[in-house]
Amino acid sequence: MTTLTSTTDTVTRDALAVLQPGFTGTTAPEWLLRRVGEGLSSVGLFGRNIENPDQLAALTAQLRAERDDVLVAIDEEGGDVTRLEVRNGSSFPGNLALGAVDDTELTRAVAHELGRRLAACGVNLNWAPSADVNSNPGNPVIGVRSFGADPHLVARHTAAYVEGLQAAGVAACTKHFPGHGDTAVDSHHAMPRIDVDLGTLHARELVPFRAAIAAGSKSVMSAHILLPALDPHRPATLSPQILTGLLREELGYQGLIVTDAVEMQAIASTYGIERGSVLAVAAGADALCVGGGLDDDSTVLRLRDALVAAVRSGELPEERLADAAARVRALASWTREARGAVREPGAAAQEGTAPGTAQSTGIASDIGLVAARRAVKATGEAAPLTAPAYVAAFTPAANIAVGDETPWGVAAELARLVPGTETDTYNGASEAPAEAALRAAGERRIVAVVRDAHRHAWMAEALDVLLAARPDTIVVEMGVPQAGPRGALHIATHGAARVCGQAAAEIIAGS
User: Fold this and answer.
1) Active-site residue list
2) Least enclosed by CB within 10 Å: which of 130, 137, 140, 353?
């Protein structure tokens, strides 16, 4: 049994230091400020916490009034996963679009501009980029969040993203180690399993993480996935063989190891969040992400007390908890130093700049749209629209990482370019969606918008019916374009961000 050499207060502060909790509201609640004063070193933000850049800057200033070096983290991948622009859609196209262009300087520039906007609002840790190799086209949770299916392409863009983001003073968190791309299960709901040998893991999954480490990624996020070749019993987040043996010792990573959210069912339904948190820290994790679904003081106290109790019982060595807390504080110190280092003369005047507004630096504010336009691939021909069209949006259920509160598609942008254009949404529960769309369209040109048509049989069948009746239909694929081109004109946007929709609408309207 470990002999405790420090006071309970020190252990309690260390237990608080390793938590990254969320909360409800657009201002920091009293309980959260109190925990920050007691030793909490990190806070996680979600779409529910953000209204606009000025409000976000005020919120982060409120947190820093309690602790100047607090880590303020966010899940801002750009593309489908956005928190800064959760209500309107992202100004950045996302990873698959950047991988489709395959210009690492563009990826670096996009990440830098995204980091600049985060830093201007006081956010200093981004749970991004996704370094997953999307080798399974049926993957329900990664898809367009990945740079692609080629490990070396993913590696070079992961490194460029890390470099661009951190040059703006925001710490990267490369995820989901050791790779979530070859899964057919969403770990928000259950435990995914990847049954491949070590040779495949090293040649595929681990290639981008090696590149991220070489690029200096300040943190790495673990995945709640079971890889029997590495550990047949515990998922990566809870595995000493994977977090300590592979990531720390074999790959030589010395930065912060963050868990994916411990309330996800892959952990919560199997181990419970308290037990899972203790096992994660014991395995080598330094910070516990929690708060996407659990966002109150009682959750923080439950996890704090579970860690303290594990130290007292000897199950969790005090030195391991202290080491984890020290890594959190070291990253907090880096972000504080970086915050000062990246400020240049005149930068203070730009700190409140809202996403999407023009700046004196020229193209930087529009770099996301530039990238989205370059990522579009159009196959076939269609005359530009000269009259209002009908947009039939065939919409799958959103996964939890993306959420269903962020709008996507081409209808809004197309209606702006071609006034009078109308739209309806159809899903897998809709009765005869193609027939309904044909009736609603009448004589108008149809634009069918799909998302991962290859993964949804109902969607592919709807396209069959629609194209048989109206072969002049324009098809816009806003997910992974695995199914191949269909329609008179097929537009693959490689993502569903707002700028992806704009880029597609411009082609359709001939603008």
Assistant:
1) 188, 260
2) 137
What is the rounded distance in angstroms from the CA atom of residue 464 to the CA atom of residue 452?
15
Contact in structure between 355 and 117 (CB atoms under 8 Å):
yes
Distance CA 390, CA 446 (A): 5
Q: What CA–CA distance (Å, rounded) separates 190 from 260?
A: 14
Q: What percent of the chain has a predicted confidence (pLDDT) above 90?
A: 81
H/E run at residue 175: strand 171-177
Q: Is the pTM of this model over 0.90?
A: yes
Output Rg (C-alpha) for the chain, integer angstroms: 23
pLDDT tier, 190 (very low <50, low <70, confident <90, very high otherwise) = low
**Residue 273 token pair:** 């969040």
Beta bridge partner(s), residue 390: 422, 446
Torsion of CA 463, 465, 470, 472, to 10 degrees: 30
CA dist., res. 107 & res. 156, Å (int): 10
List of residues 6+ apart from 254 with CB closer than 8 A: 248
Share of the chain above pLDDT 70, in %: 91
Q: Which residues contact 371 (CB under 8 A, 6 or more apart)?
A: 92, 93, 97, 98, 101, 106, 110, 499
Position of tokens 């019993």?
233
SS3 for 80?
coil
CA distances for 165 relative to 100, 144, 334, angstroms: 20, 19, 14
The token pair at 13 is 């502060």
Query: What is the rounded distance in angstroms from the CA atom of residue 354 to the CA atom of residue 375?
Result: 25
Residue 506 structure tokens: 């411009």
Amino acid letter, residue 226: L
pLDDT of 431 reads 87
Please state, in angstroms and rounded to a whole number, the distance separating the CA atoms of residues 447 and 300.
48
pLDDT of residue 95: 97
Question: What pLDDT is attached to residue 292?
Answer: 75
Q: How many Cα atoms occupy the beta-carbon half-sphere of 358 within 13 Å?
A: 2
Give dist(CA 196, CA 230) in Å, integer. 10
CA atoms of 497 and 495, how far apart (whole Å) = 6
pLDDT for res 191: 73
Q: How far is CA 121 from the centre of its chain?
A: 18
Here the tokens at position 331 are 């990253």
Angstrom distance (rounded) from CA 476 to CA 448: 6
Neighbours of 359 (CB within 10 A): 13
- pLDDT the model gives residue 351: 34
Query: Is the model's pLDDT at 381 over the cut of 60?
Result: yes
